[in-house]
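Subject: Protein record for review, amino acid sequence with backbone structure tokens
Category: Structural biology, sequence-to-fold work with a learned token vocabulary.
Format: Residues in single-letter code; tokens as whole numbers, each standing for a residue.
Body of memo: The sequence and its backbone structure tokens, given next.
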Amino acid sequence: MSQIDPASDRVWHAKQYPFEIPDHSYQLNADGWQPLADFAIDEMLHPVVASGSNASPARLADKFAGFLDRPIDVTRATLCDFDAVYSAHFAKYGAIPATLMRAAGTVVSVNVAWLDDAQLDRMHATEALGVNYEYQILEEISLMLDDGPTLDRASAYISKRGALNFGGAPVALSAVHALERKWQALSQEQMLDAARLRLAPESALDHFISESLHDDDLRLARTHALAVDAIGF
């Protein structure tokens, strides 16, 4: 059995989810990202709501490396009657990622990535469609773009595993701002530690994360254990 290094950069990285998210709209291109100066809706593009790490320019830059022939505009927005919560699964990079959940009365801050057909295909390829997520069109919503119109239709990646059940309710991401939030909010590190107490209470947290990073079978078994009582969308 290989030696697990609990102090690895990958363990630290897992705890940083959903990573750094600007508090303003931005544009991502092959040279990096910068604040978005001008934005106009292009009806040919797909508005994709990001409730977790897909809102982070660093994460998007990793996903779209080599696929940025056209810049991607990412607009800040607020989404009514939803919240960003933890999904009942572990990502390959060790974090417990996010999903949207309907939450009457809550208004959550999100980002909207405006993707062309090729970029949407690329995003699909990074989202483990059919395994951890499914691509859904959200109808009759209220998605208010910063300094822009309100959309009643957009798409999002929704967890196929369901929302992680913590004491009978989903758990919101404390890193994502929301008004009138109805559920407890935890940081990534707090959520990972809660999962550790549930699944491997004898392990130290960094060791628990390292095991999931290094052992695909164990990570999948832990995902199945979280999904047993998950809360469906």
About this structure: The CA atoms of residues 14 and 26 lie 24 Å apart. The domain at 9-227 is CATH 3.10.490.10 (Hypothetical upf0131 protein ytfp). The chain has one domain: 9-227.
